[in-house]
Structure formats: structure tokens, C-alpha cells
Amino acid sequence: APDYYQSYKDENSLHIPNRLGFSTVSWGEPKRGFVEDSEDAKKKGNFDPEDCQNAYNMLLDAGIAFVDTSENFGKGMRPNSLSAEEILGTCVKDTSSDFDPMIASSFQARFRLGNRDTVCNTAEETLARMGTPSMTLYQVRPSLASTIGIGALAQGMVDAIDEGFCEYVGMIDANRGKLQAMRRALDKRDETLTSNQFEFSLVNRKKEALIAHCKRAEVIPLIRNPFGSDGLGSGIWTSEDPTGGGKGRRFSDKVLEKWEPLHSMLFRIVEKVQKRAPTTSGGGRELKDFKAKKYEKKKESVVITPPMIAINYIVAKGGVPLVDVYDTETAKQLLGCLGWSLTDEEIIQLEQAAELSAM
């Protein structure tokens, strides 16, 4: 599978192919359109476990192997064995892909009484739900340290690695101070912090400095909600198309008019990228990995969209976007990000438009 960032200087020993990942945040969540019955899934906007499987297969075959899940995603469907972790476990077992996934899960409880064993216990429960012996990355929230202490939390993370439950450990929503504290605590135990997951997008750039700090600290910035928590930065909903192509109204006219400068810029850059995407990446590198005819054909047929611009903006800023994918259509949006990148000028134009919209 192509890996356009194979020669990229990673922050640490964990290499994420193509600097792209996908999230299972919608899997098992009825409020996000998940249904058990395939007949219901045929209705507009719905998806079922088979849709998740097809998207999973498509992404792995294309070289997007990093998948983020959580004990909280689809938690209400556990009685039916259809939480996100359980669906992902089925995808891994039943995949038609020849490639192995890189699974990241997380201990999401913000506050939970326990001790250092709590981390190992929850990691083991996650693996049991997925039916896998180990995962690539296990992430915890720094808030757990307020109940068991930073030292105990760090030791629990090290224990999870030593027990073979995961290869690497990371944090979720750690600010600069908590990041440094955990790095010191792990360093005392001869282990390193691999990642920090947080929100960042064109409509929410508050943590731009945290991306830079993570990279200086050799910690991978994993970026969830790359379109913003409500999708405003995707360019799907605009003042000219308030229903998002029939997806339904999500924003008021006032909000869409406010963000019109950014949405217009997304479409302008779509036109520019479309002209070069079939033959070169944004940096001018030829698509040497696309030697197979099937890949060449797929690349030539890619239609660049505003969400793809928003996703590759995250990559350009140094983050690894975790894109919500739940069917082949959303998978294609992520696949369309392969093989090209934004120019410095385009990044500046997007940020200027975002700043103008946010005023």
C-alpha cells in the first residue's frame, strides 16, 4: 500500500502511514446514524456494521491503517455486542485486506477511583471486547492522575506495555504542563510518551501552539474532529448550501454567513488542487508509489472536495487527523487526501480566511 510519508521524519518510533488515521467515534452510535438492520441502513444517512467493514477494508488496502477507537464509543450497544470496539474486532477478524491495522484505543473515564492496576485492567477489557491480543497504542486522560497520582498513572501505563497489552502509550487532552509531567514520570521508568490527542481544525485553532510543543517534545499530535466538533469546517454546509447537499440543516444562516470567507476559500483551493492532484503532490513529488495501474486509475478519478482540503490542512500543520469514517463514501473522502499536499501559500490563505471568519 502506498505510504507518501515513508521518508517523513517521525516524532518518535511510531510511524503512522500517510500521516492519516480514521476514527470509529460513530460506530455503534444510533444518534450518529448507526443501525443494526441492513434494511434500515439503506435509508439516507444510516449505516450498519457491514458499512463499517467495507470502509475498514478500503482504507487498509490504500495504506491508511491507523484506527482510533475507545471504550466509550457505542458503549450503549454493548448488550448487543455492537460497541465500536466490538465492531472493530469483527472488522479485523473478517477483513479481506492483506494489511494489519494499527489500533489505538483509550481509557476515557475522566475521573475514576482506582490504582495503577486500573490502566491494565481497562486495557485488558478493551482487548477482550475487540478479541485481539494487543493494540498499537493505549491512551489515557491526565485527569486520572488526580485520583491515583501521576506516578501511579505512569506506572500503570508502563505495566500495560510490559504485559503486552499495547506497544505504546499516549494521552488525551493533555496541556503543556501535564504533558511535561507525564514525560518526566515515564522517563523515570525508562519509557516514553508517544502521543497526545486533542481537537484542532480550521474553525478551532486554539491549540496550534500545542501541536508545535508536541513535535518539539517528540510526541505525535493526534487530531480528532478535524472539521470542528460540529462539522462547520468541512465546507459541506455553506451559506449557499445550508442543508449540506441534503444532509439536513445543522447551522443557522447567521453562522454560515459568518464563516463564508473560510468556506469560499476552501472551494477556491479545491479548484487549484484539482489541477495538480492527478500527477503531483503539493510538494511537487511525483507519485512514485502509484505504479500499479489500479492505483493510477483511482488517482486520476479522484475529485477533490472541501473536506479533503480541511484534512490535509491538519497534516500540513504537523498533526495526524483522525477522521470519522463509517461507510465507503466517508472512506473515499479520506482516500482522496492521498498523494498531494497543500502549498505554503494555500495554508496561509486558509488561515487568513479562518481568522476573518472568526472575527
What are the secondary-structure elements, in order, as H or E?
A: EHHEHEHEHHEHEHEHHHHEHH
Radius of gyration: 20 Å
Helix content: 40-55%
Q: What's the mean pLDDT score?
A: 91
Please identify the structural class as seen in this structure. alpha/beta
Largest sheet, described in full? 8 strands, parallel, barrel
| Total strand segments | 8
Low-confidence stretches: 278-299
- Fraction of residues in β-strands: 5-15%
From the N-terminal CA to the C-terminal CA, the straight-line distance is 43 Å
Describe the structure concisely for a colleague.
With 359 residues, the chain is α/β, with parallel strands linked by helices. The protein has 14 helices and eight strands. α4 links the parallel β3 and β4 (135-140).
Question: What's the layout of helices and strands?
Answer:
Blueprint lengths: L20 E3 L14 H4 L7 H13 L4 E3 L15 H11 L7 E6 L9 H14 L4 E6 L4 H4 L1 H13 L3 E7 L3 H12 L7 E5 L8 H9 L3 E5 L28 H6 L1 H17 L16 H8 L5 H11 L3 E5 L3 H8 L8 H15 L1
Parallel strand pairs: 1-2, 1-8, 2-3, 3-4, 4-5, 5-6, 6-7, 7-8
Salient structural properties:
14 helices; alpha/beta; 11% strand; 359 residues
What does this structure look like?
It is a single chain. Helix content is 40%, strand content 11%. The chain has helices at 38-41, 49-61, 84-94, 117-130, 145-148, 150-162, 176-187, 208-216, 253-258, 260-276, 293-300, 306-316, 328-335, 344-358; strands spanning 21-23, 66-68, 102-107, 135-140, 166-172, 195-199, 220-224, 320-324. It has an 8-stranded parallel beta barrel, surrounded by 4 helices. β2, α3 and β3 (102-107) form a beta-alpha-beta unit. α10 crosses α12 and α10 runs antiparallel to α14.
